[in-house]
Write a structure and sequence with these properties.
By secondary structure, the chain is an alpha/beta fold. It folds into 2 domains: 156 residues, Rossmann fold (3-Layer(aba) Sandwich); 92 residues, ProC C-terminal domain-like (ProC C-terminal domain-like fold). 51% of the residues lie in helices and 13% in strands. It contains 12 helices and 8 strands. Helix 8 packs across helix 9. It is elongated and about 70 Å long. The model has no long low-confidence stretch (mean pLDDT 96).
Length: 275
């Protein structure tokens, strides 16, 4: 466990799937379940969180905040204002570090419901964090300290890759790329599998081959450090099968469509955040 989190008490407001993934990642990384608490009005969510993380759960957000050094806002974006407004009369709201994973909610939208000086981190994780292979970007406000940023980094590295963005507006681009990106990949996986069926493969084999091909290609890119274009060229022989397939992808506008998808998702993230 990173020194950034080793001695902290971590509380989750919201015990949904992402909170359970983050909590489970912390436990797997070495944090004691006794240091983790979740609060949620839904009994089923509390039960699932307790089973996966091992930490205690409750319904009272104020008690959770009072007992935590780091509070993760793991609720839907529209729930953030009422959750924080309900805590307005509680003391010491500037004591814990606040980390929000509510998509599209800017730091100012969180800090405006907290006392002046509140330390706030806004993060954009993605769903592969559920299997501890996520990609997360985060941005910390000016009130945070180096130890706060180290704690945020350790939290998200417990469930995958994490990157500290130099400016908050870049989180909209992150939303368009890695936040929405799993859906793009799932669409590609579906298309690859169906294409395999079309050319005669059994459906279970076609999908398994597609899944492992995408996972293996991504792992090769990560471990080799080579540019994707160089890796593509390694597979592409002159006059061969791969160049024939690539030619059809380019003719179909796949590259342009991906660019447009990321740009449109980024635009929508800005719109939802009031930008």
């Amino acid at each position: 466990m990173s020194e950034g989190l080793r001695d902290l008490r971590v509380g989750f407001i919201g015990c949904g799937a992402m909170a359970s993934a983050l909590g489970g990642g912390l436990v797997a990384a070495g944090l004691s379940p006794t240091q983790i608490t979740g609060a949620d009005p839904d009994e089923g969510c509390r039960t699932a969180f307790a089973e996966r993380v091992g930490g205690a759960t409750q319904v009272d957000n104020a008690r959770l905040v009072a007992a935590s050094d780091l509070v993760v806002l793991a609720v839907k974006p529209g729930i953030v204002p009422p959750v924080l407004t309900a805590l307005a009369d509680e003391p010491e709201l500037t004591r814990p570090l606040w980390i929000s994973i509510a998509a599209g909610v800017p730091i100012q939208g969180i800090a405006s419901h907290l006392p002046a000086g509140a330390r706030v981190v806004r993060a954009m994780p993605n769903t592969p964090a559920l299997v501890r292979d996520g990609a997360t970007a985060f941005y910390a406000n000016a009130q945070t300290h180096e130890a706060d940023r180290a704690a945020a980094l350790a939290l998200f590295e417990a469930v995958g890759y994490a990157w500290q963005a130099p400016t908050e507006p870049l989180l909209d681009a992150v939303t368009g790329l890695s936040g929405s990106g799993p859906a793009y990949v799932f669409l590609l996986l579906e298309a690859l599998g169906d294409a395999g069926v079309r050319v005669g493969l059994p459906r279970d084999a076609a999908y398994a081959l597609a899944f492992h091909t995408v996972r293996g290609a991504a792992q090769l890119a990560i471990e080799s450090g080579a540019h994707p274009a160089a890796l593509k060229d390694q597979v592409t022989s002159p006059g061969g099968t791969t160049i024939a397939g690539l030619e059809r992808l380019e003719a179909g506008g796949v590259r342009a469509a991906i660019h447009e998808a990321v740009a449109e998702a980024t635009r929508r993230s800005k719109e939802l955040g009031g930008g």
